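User: quick one, fold this
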Amino acid sequence: MASIGLRRFRYALMNEDGETYGTVGTLAGAIECKVSLNIANAKLHADDVTKENIDEFIDGTITMGIDDDDDAKFSVLLGESSENYTIGEGQDAKTIKVYKSNTDDVAKYFGFGQVVPKIINGSRKFKVEWFPKVQFKPYVTDKKTKGDSLEFSTPSVEGTIFADNNKDWRKRATFDSEEDANTFLDSLFVQSA
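Assistant:
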């Protein structure tokens, strides 16, 4: 049951109804994904033994290593604004888009999913893991000088996992084919009628 890769970071903005999503897209190239859960625990002790134990999901943190933190995508997810800015004058003038981070920005909720190739009993399988409600945190990517040898520095972004209106916080299923896994993943982003 070992995973042997990571593919297809898919996302879509959650609509205001909290149940449907906008256009599904690829967030970025998948490098790594780590999930840490915040679980509440309560135990009932009676007659000198534990009689009941309950663990309940509170929220979670998802950290994604990606190949590109595209400003156009992440600005929308973080609730940031943008404006056109003109450089130069006359015939040489160029217009660029400038993305602004502001203390009053409110990050949007979105659905997020991925496909994890696995080997199970000598057969290749594809596990879909989907989180219906995630909110990104503002971030700044790490940088360093090139030095004597070349190496890639890749961004890492973090989000908070919430339960949706149905109290679901994750869905997952495993498929024999990658095509079926991809189809299932995209179907989880329910579109409005």
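User: anything notable?
Assistant: The mean pLDDT is 91.
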